[in-house]
């Protein structure tokens, strides 16, 4: 069996009294994209830093491309592409200089001009990093991560601060990486980013894995349809099925559960029994965002 690109087993990361990552296990198969989701402070960046070998885990084990990311750091670094949240490049150098510098470290770098073009950065080649906008700095950081033709790429919130066009360009680029057999582990707060890009999603909550699966698995588990009904506010419904009824705003009822046609008819029957006038009915599949919010609700932060 081909070894996974990333194998994380029971990893713990502590900062003094704070346990940022509390026994996380995950696997990223080669040539796939895994998205790590979680609220601020869930432990995503800490886990990424351990995978990148910038610090060792306090417990557990990590194998990256079959190697130990701390002990084998020097052998591993040329094979990795790392995009940091903060950019991590020199503020006084120009975009072109920065990218050429990182290209010079690589044995088989990508063509710098091609990469500047792909990321819409050619016109900023002579602009210093500190004069680039936040989204342009992000794109340059992504270019830096990719210029060495890495086998495995770590992207910490790659599209944070990017406009819609830049985000789509980045998504296409990440998809083309996968098509070339590159493995991608990314963190994001954008559920649509995870849903459209990722082969696997891991949702972290308070340092632990709250759920894992493909986007389809996470949204298609039994009882995941939503029924939205508008009627008068404050109704007490004689709920008899195993569904959850929430009055999300006055008169807007959300019913979540295993909703086949019979169940939907039964739910509407409750409104009829309550003597309510139903003015709108809507059904929809649960999105990754619904699943995410359900799993992370009640987090301690
Ligand atoms: N250097 C540090 N020293 C002390 N505590 C830290 C340090 N780095 C992170 N933490 C704490 O560890 C927890 C996890 O932080 P981490 O940055 O890994 O979360 P995250 O999921 O990446 O968050 P975000 O989405 O905001 O980037 C937080 O409670 C954070 O305050």
Automatic annotation (TrEMBL):
Taking every annotated instance into account, which residue ranges of this chain make up the domain ABC transporter? 6-231
Q: In the record, what terms sit under GO molecular function?
A: ATP binding; ATP hydrolysis activity
| Membrane topology annotation | Peripheral membrane protein
**Compartments in which it is found:** Cell membrane
Name the keywords, alphabetized. Answer: Antibiotic resistance, ATP-binding, Cell membrane, Membrane, Nucleotide-binding, Translocase, Transport
Q: Which Pfam families match?
A: ABC_tran
Major location (coarse): membrane
Give any Gene Ontology cellular component. Answer: plasma membrane
GO BP field? response to antibiotic
Q: Does the keyword Cell membrane apply?
A: yes
Task: Name the PROSITE patterns for this protein.
Answer: ABC_TRANSPORTER_1, ABC_TRANSPORTER_2
> What is the protein named?
ABC-2 type transport system ATP-binding protein
Species of the source: Pseudosporangium ferrugineum
At the highest ranks, the source species' classification is: Bacteria, Bacillati, Actinomycetota, Actinomycetes, Micromonosporales
């Amino acid at each position: 069996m081909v070894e996974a690109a990333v194998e994380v087993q029971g990893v713990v990361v502590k900062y003094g009294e704070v346990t940022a990552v509390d026994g996380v296990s995950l696997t990223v198969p080669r040539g796939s994209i895994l998205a790590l989701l979680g609220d601020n402070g869930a432990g995503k960046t800490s886990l990424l830093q351990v995978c990148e070998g910038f610090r060792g885990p306090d417990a557990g084990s990590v194998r990256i491309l079959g190697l130990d990311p701390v002990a084998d750091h020097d052998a591993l670094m040329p094979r990795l592409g790392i995009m940091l949240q903060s950019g991590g490049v020199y503020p006084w150098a120009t975009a072109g200089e920065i990218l050429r510098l990182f290209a010079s470290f690589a044995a088989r770098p990508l063509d710098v001009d091609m990469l500047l073009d792909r990321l819409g950065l050619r016109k900023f080649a002579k602009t210093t990093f500190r004069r680039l906008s936040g989204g342009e700095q992000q794109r340059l950081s992504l270019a830096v991560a990719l210029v060495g033709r890495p086998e495995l790429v770590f992207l910490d919130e790659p599209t944070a601060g990017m406009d819609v066009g830049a985000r789509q360009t980045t998504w296409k680029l990440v998809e083309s990486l996968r098509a070339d057999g590159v493995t991608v582990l990314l963190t994001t707060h954008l559920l649509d980013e995870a849903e459209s890009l990722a082969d696997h999603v891991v949702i972290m909550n308070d340092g632990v894995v709250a759920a894992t699966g493909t986007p389809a698995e996470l949204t298609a588990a039994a009882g995941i349809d939503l029924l939205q009904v508008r009627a008068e506010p404050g109704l007490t419904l004689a709920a008899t099925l195993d569904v959850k009824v929430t009055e999300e705003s006055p008169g807007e009822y959300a019913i979540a559960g295993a909703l086949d046609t019979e169940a939907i008819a039964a739910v509407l029957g409750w409104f009829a029994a309550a003597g309510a006038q139903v003015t709108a009915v809507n059904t929809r599949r649960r999105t990754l965002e619904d699943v995410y919010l359900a799993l992370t609700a009640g987090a301690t932060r």
